[in-house]
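Practice record 12: protein with pyridoxal-5'-phosphate.
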Amino acid sequence: MSGGQAQERRKTSFLHGGRARARPLQLVDPATFTPHFSWKKSGGNSAGGESVWCERISLSEIAEKTGTPTYVYSQAAIGGAYNELVTGLGALPHTLCFAVKSNGSLAILKYLAGLGSGFDIVSGGELQHLQRIGVAGKRIVFSGVGKTREEMREALRYRATGRDGARGILLFNIESEAELAALLEESAREQRRGAAVPAVSIRVNPDVQAGGHPHISTGRHEHKFGLDWEQARRLYLAHRDSRDIQWRGISVHIGSQIVALSPFQRALRRLAEYVSELRGAGIPLKYLDFGGGLGVRYTNEKVPARKDYARMVAQAIRPLRLHLLLEPGRTIIGPTRGYRGPRL
Ligand SMILES: Cc1ncc(COP(=O)(O)O)c(C=O)c1O
């Protein structure tokens, strides 16, 4: 689509919003709000028309070499997004754990690892990706519903290729009682073979209205992701003195494509209450995993700046004296890709 055609499409409206009240969204040319992409005149073989450029490279020129469809990522945009979050968190002890499900390209994972990123995974396949690029276990958090026993074993035995040192990962985020039961059994068996006692957290459901798109909202009681507080507290207490796991954290992910700070603030207030209750009951927490969820602009949404979001999270966590884990996906990778399809 040329710049002129994009202008034309910009006038088009469409409906968006699922079960929520349908709200017209205006299509806006993304190049106008993604600074690493632009429309420019193409030279070379592109017959002098306009084409999309990523940083200083024309997507058409890349497509001529690689064929189509081709996806081009801006390294500067990925690094910029990552660093904005880090800057906003300031001196708060933290590990950013990029959500691998949002993009599993080895080149991108390697680049993020080089920036110091940790990783949030939801499958054994993602763990193998990280192993291949040498990510240390202490930078990996395992989230996701329905982890299989085999995947749990792989994570308990994990050691990055080419690295010595401790086996295992930083944290298992447990999403159900059945999953906890399986992890307890697998851990007991693996310990007999020399594995360490795994650090575990429960993904709680803070029952807050998250906003964002209704089909990817997970923070309300009816959404069934994570355990409600009564169930979670019962499990924390029942396994307080377990020899097969050690409680080290509490985690939450209230949904995706959230474009306001207030749902995050509500969830953080709830979490602060849970943390204080757990500490009162003698559960020694080290990590608060606040998941992902910050949205990106697709059309005319007004999205909070990453730095402001991170500052707000840091301010809420500081008094709790916990190590923050964040699992951003979309906010890091969403606005960084250009696509060049075939010319028909
Ligand atoms: C547990 C968890 N963490 C992190 C993410 C990444 O979320 P986002 O891409 O909205 O930042 C998701 C997305 O579904 C998730 O379920």
